[in-house]
Amino acid sequence: MPLPQVRPGRRYAVRVATGHPVTGHPVTGSGARDVVGVLVAADTSTWTLLPEDRAPETVAVADVRAAREVPPRVVRPSSSVDDVQRLAARGWPGLEQHRLGGWLLRAGAGYTGRANSALVAGDPGLPVEDAVARVEAFYAERGTRARFQVAYPMTGPDDPAGAVDALLAARGYEVVTPTFTYVADLRSLEPAPLDGLTASWSEQPDEEWLAPESPLHGRHPRAVDVITACPARYLTLRSHGDFVARARLVVTEDWCGITELVVDEGARGRGTGRRAMGELTRAGRAAGARFGYLQVLQTNAAATGLYDALGWRRHHRYHYRGQPS
């Protein structure tokens, strides 16, 4: 069967004869294995694919038995911690991204941990000590200290990044901002009506939307660049013309991510957050999303209580490890 014309940037499933995955030597035996990833380089003799969870792999075209283009990896609320972490990272990419095997190194001028940390997921393709050193060098080149985002299941002893976290702890890295990641099947939710509030949506955040300071980061000169680093929609809620809440909604495949939800201090305790979540749920559904995710500090009792009551489920938790000064 002739091989298809492949294009870098597309995702492929490639069946490779075992024995010589990299060189062009004659194939021995009849076994085969599959490599699935984004094609990052191709010539007449080799293809290089980048799987989601490990380092790039180069295969000899002579060893390829079949290849087909495949859609992005399917993620569901029951998917692994790493899969949901990677999905959420697509909705808040920062200003710069580099892969280190399965890890994702992100830089965003210092605004937010998500945009300025190494997402520890999968195999970095190096011994852990060497991978940590590479991350530290990456952030040192950008004039900042390293930060790692390390995720855990909600229950049970299984820890997908235990060796990394233990090494960082031994090196004096401190835990910063422990966070829950929530997920939901939007089809099962009953979104609250606006009940007198008015909702407006825009493709870019305006001055009113940007006016509330980030609870964690305050005002930042590059905040707008980070917030708008990928396509999103921006919600503003008003009561009798006065601002009461804002949020950002990003759609990735059949998921929507809710970020930057801020309720004005004078509107808290009045169901404003519940109504904002109702509007965000409706908008996510209308955009074709079946599932949703959001991230919230574990110490934010008001927010976690709201999300629990609305039917969102705690999928996993994560924290950052910050390099000591």
TrEMBL record:
Gene3D superfamilies found in the cross-reference section: 3.40.630.30
Domain N-acetyltransferase: 173-325
UniProt keyword annotation of Phosphoprotein present: no
Keyword annotations: Acyltransferase, Transferase
Top-level taxon of the source organism: Bacteria
GO MF, any single term: acyltransferase activity, transferring groups other than amino-acyl groups
Coiled-coil positions: none
Name recorded for this polypeptide: GNAT family N-acetyltransferase
Organism whose genome encodes this protein: Arsenicicoccus cauae
